[in-house]
Amino acid sequence: MRGSDRRRGRAVLRYVFLTHRWAGILACLLFAMWFASGLVMLYVPYPALPAAQIWAGAAPIDWARVRYRPEGTARRITLAMRGAAPVWWVEDRDGATRILSAETGLAPAPVDSAHARGVAARFGGAPVRAVERIADDQWTVAGGFDRHRPLWKASLADAAATDLYISSLTGQPVQRTTRGQRFWNWLGSVPHWLYPTILRRDQSAWRQVVIWVSGPCIAVALTGLWIGILRMRPGRRRYRGGRMTPYHGWMLWHHVSGLLGGVMLTTWIVSGWLSVDPGRFFAGTKAPAAATQTYAGAVAVPGGLDRLAALAPHARSVEWTGDAGRQRVAIDRVSTHPRWLDAQALRPARSDPGMIARAAAVLVPGGDVVGVERLAVPDFYWSGALPVLRLRFDDAARTWLYVDPMSGALVERQDRVRRAYRWVYTLLHTWNWPWLVQRRPAWDAWMWVWSLAGLVMSASGVVIGWRRLRRSARTGG
After folding, report:
1. pLDDT tens for residues 235-251?
2. CB atoms within 10 A of CB 6
3. Residues of 388-416 as b/e, b for ≥16 C-beta within 10 angstroms?
4. Which pLDDT belongs to residue 171?
């Protein structure tokens, strides 16, 4: 029986070695790409145009031309400028947005190339070299741009070779890239996320590619750790010359770097695989649609906007919301100094955590509020906009709601499954630990040490694999 067990053990070990040897040839190429591109991403993130910058470049509302106000109620209503004319953005309860002229109440003229050219020149502060209408490209393929399609791509004649993308819905810029960003992202985010446009257009296909590419790489990493530990002799039974490893040359580099960084490297690979949540194990719970609509409420624009015009003569945006049962007006909400007013009295609004908590109870059926916190600094579970209210519930899923303290808008919902996902993906993949991130040189050093260990392991694996392939080709097996 013992002999049979030993034979089975040797057979298993042989399969482990073969898996690591042959699958590792391709995996090490992918590893090298991921580690190198990850280092680029530390300093050049994927292009994005923050909302604050979009509104900073917008024109002030021309109140003299606001002669019409939308009738009825909506989920959210915003007054802003589109070109030289004021418009209303009316967001219905189903999330669809209608654009109405604030002068006539009719749909404004479509955003054309002339409008896009004027917006881009004013926003970018440079002449526009060319304008073209596109559905998407590498920098606008994500689903978040769907409501703005088709897009107008305006190329500026500036030193940075800036491209601005103008929404055909709002007439505002929604994305910006420069020559430097585009170059470095082709070496960073695009290969790291397996993110070419032709693949990313199909969310389902892209997700499956990430799953089936990352999965075998995990097997290579785990078998490599096992083999590395088996080959190590730390005790008195060392190899010739007192060595802990039997290897020399590239194999020595591969063994040592794999042992030093193997656990961390496997953690990165597994957490990267979890980024697409295979099996949807970390989907978490959701509030019933009816409860979400009830909490979001409805809002109407009151008559007589003269007083509001006097209070905010230079506002770039005025937004009416009804979250948490509170009617609010936000003046330049996405700015460094937003102003919140009571929608009826037009007086400064105050945060009311107790009222928000009572209204939010509808979002967590079967649970009661057991804690209300106002976060002013990030922690392990929150690194978004601040300040924010965190409402803790005692339901079976242990739900936490993150709510804007002024508007009452629900920002994020977390249950214990989603909090676990933050540990296994967000924290372990990006090491976005508050203590470490706040000491940025330490965070950089941490990421560089393990990335370099991964690059040494990957590069040595590529060399070893190439030599083995050449030897196999010469010998015919």
Report:
1. 667 777 778 788 889 98
2. 10
3. bbbbbbeeebbbbbbbbbbbbbbeebbbe
4. 95
Of the pLDDT bands very low, low, confident and very high (cuts 50, 70, 90), residue 88 is very high
Q: Which residue has the higher pLDDT, 338 or 426?
A: 338
Contact at 8 Å (CB) between 160 and 192? Answer: no
Angle at 182 (CA atoms; ends 457, 119), nearest 5 degrees: 155
Overall average pLDDT of the 206-226 stretch: 90
Q: What are phi and psi of 239, to 5 degrees?
A: -75, 175
| pLDDT value of position 227 | 85
Collapsed DSSP state (helix, strand, coil) of residue 128: strand
What are the structure tokens assigned to 140, written together?
């606008």
Give the domain ranges of the chain: 51-178
- Three-point CA angle 42, 44, 45, nearest 5°: 85
Question: Which has the closest alpha carbon to 362: 276, 450, 287?
Answer: 287
Q: How far apart are CA 310 and CA 377, in angstroms?
A: 35
Query: Which alpha helices (DSSP H) does 398-439 contain, by range?
Result: 416-421, 428-430, 434-437
